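EI: anyone free to look at a 163-residue chain?
SC: sure, send it
EI:
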Amino acid sequence: MDGSGSMDAWFGNHPHGFYGLIEILRDWAKTLPLTGELAGTNTGPGPAKGGLRLGFVQFSGSNPWWWFSGTPKAIQTPSGTGSSGHLSGDLTQINQDLDWHEANYMGDGTMIEKGLTMVGDMFDASHQHAVRPRILIIFTDGKIYDPNSLGPARTVLDQEDVQ
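SC: here you go
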């Protein structure tokens, strides 16, 4: 999720884009066929249980200027809150994750490298369901200011077979 400062602008009828995005994600999650699995649940080897699990990473950072290369940042739900930064198929944990992101809006520049790395780590930690398709959806409202540094993060996502 884009946690940049530009996300505080109007978003449709919503006066704050980031909070509007959280609201849409919350409504969307209610309609999905979730697994019901809590984060970190390991059902062992074999085919994955049907349904989806979700994870959320917020990305931002200090945009680069001619004298400064910028500082990418990313955050996910901390240990002990919601999914603790893992994939979850439990709507209660998903809502707790979204509540946490809503309360911890970053509001800085638009840099995504650290966010992609964090997503790769999230998928890697869920290796017990390697047969499950891995899909990354990026929500952003504008230009990404660190495109030249995305190679290593993309390599990790490719190794995890993230689409």
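EI: The two ends are 17 Å apart (CA to CA).
SC: 👍
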